[in-house]
Amino acid sequence: KLLHFLVVDDNGINRFVLSELIRIETGITVPQASNGKEAVDMVKKILHSDPTISILVFMDLEMPVMDGITATHCLLEDDTLKKNVTVVAVSAHASEVEREKCTKAGMKRFIVKPVKAE
Questions:
Q1: pLDDT-based confidence at 114, cuts 50/70/90?
Q2: Which of 54, 63, 78, 113 maximizes the CB count within 10 A of its CB?
Q3: What's the CA gap between 30 and 16, in Å, rounded?
Q4: Residue 76 CB: number of other CB atoms within 10 A?
Q5: How far apart are CA 4 and CA 43, in angstroms?
């Protein structure tokens, strides 16, 4: 399966940093979305054009228009999307409560901002 990445964050600097880290590691240019609704629309468009693609979405939690938890629900409640999408939470809030919300929404991992190369 072909792997795509998507970085979703309302902060342009955060989008740039995470996208660049992925590009440096993989050589892949990473599309970006500034809110959850844009992300859901982009994933649907990508998978409509090729339903065999897997998409790894790095999702901020607090965004205008549609937050990351709601966007994750939208992506994972659709059986067609669910089998091709993995969502990783990206948040400055690392509390156990926040992590639990992400896990319940179906997010597979949790990355704490600021994101740093290791």
A1: confident
A2: 63
A3: 9
A4: 17
A5: 10
Nearest CA-CA partner of 77 in 103, 57, 115, 106: 106
Q: What is the pLDDT of residues 60-73, one digit of tens each?
A: 999 999 999 999 99
- Among 36, 45, 37, smallest CA distance to 4 is for 45
pTM of the model: 0.92
d(CA 90, CA 88): 7
Would you call 12 exposed, middle or buried from its count of C-beta atoms within 10 A (0-12, 13-18, 19+)?
exposed
Task: Grade residue 3 by pLDDT with cuts at 50, 70 and 90.
Answer: confident
